[in-house]
Amino acid sequence: MIYIFSDDSRLGRKGLEIVEALDLPIRVVNINKDSLSNIIWLEIVAMLNCELKTIFNIDSELKIEGLDADNFVKADYLNLVKENPSILKNPIAIKGSEVLRIFDKKEIFQFYSEIKSEETFYNVSLQQTQKINKPLRAI
């Protein structure tokens, strides 16, 4: 499980608090500190079935840099996110082959809590099985 966010995003920081509170083995990637490879970004948009321009909020960055997004190709978006990680406004949650672009902090809990519920069920079932399978003492 992976949680990808930018430190510059308020939603990303709030989501990080939720991820940490879930106490699950979730790998956290803050793209302000650890950049993702171009291949990873391309895999994410393929799994989301969208284009790179839809996961990045580039309007404010373009005004600052004087760029024209209408002429952007994939490499332009990939270079822009490396230089300006703040363009990722919405965190991305990954578990297995499922990917979710987060728009509300409740989605983070819902997305990862299914695993927490399954894990809790498994642990309770395992404990019950172990209690039942204990050998009987000889009388």
Automatic annotation (TrEMBL):
Transmembrane segments: none annotated. InterPro entries: Arsenate_reductase-like (IPR006660), Thioredoxin-like_sf (IPR036249). Belongs to the ArsC family. This is Arsenate reductase family protein. It comes from Winogradskyella litorisediminis. The lineage of its organism: Bacteria, Pseudomonadati, Bacteroidota, Flavobacteriia, Flavobacteriales.
